[in-house]
Amino acid sequence: MTILSFKSLSSTQIYLKNLVREKTHTVPIAIVADIQTNGIGSRNNKWISKEGNLFLSFAIPLKNLPSDLKLESASIYFAFILKETLAELGSKVFLKWPNDLYVNESKIGGMITNIVDDVIICGVGLNMYAVNDIFSSLDINIEKKILIKKYFKNIKKRSLWKQVFSKYKLNFQTNKEFFTHINGERLSLSKALLEDDGSLNINGERIYSLR
Fold this sequence. Notes:
Layout lengths: L1 E8 L2 H11 L6 E8 L2 E2 L5 E2 L6 E8 L12 H15 L5 E3 L3 E4 L2 E11 L2 E8 L17 H13 L4 H11 L7 E4 L2 E4 L4 E2 L5 E3 L2 E3 L4
């Protein structure tokens, strides 16, 4: 994985999308910035930036994804691998469906995915340090370079979706006290059933991640 580092970018995701569209670099490739001035969060919200936190986007050819992974569940797949990477380092972080990383009751990060041509682009925001009273921070001290190296090493294993999902399904109980947002509607996860393809079944309706 080629990694390009920057002091400041408007958005690692937008920058990487442009690189992929222009075909100026071969993939896989990753973009890291010390700070973002216009980071993108879930549901087109702005991801609040604080220098020292992790702002990362990476691009992988679709052909390199596990054969059993539905693209609708790519956020779950890559976010859970990050969750597992952090857990290996001692964190008690958990994944809230489909792409939010939490410690206790506080969101500390998230993942969004997009498809550009034949490439998937994943954007990661992770608070290594607290941003404000609403968004907390990671519960371990780890250098960003070490975390990124370990994360990409785990991605390179190309674990099957069923292997990653089987672990996430066991952890899904941590989601029951939370809500998710679908098409502008706030839905409780208290009675949600997690299907094998990563979708949710809420009151008989099948819901897929849109992130």
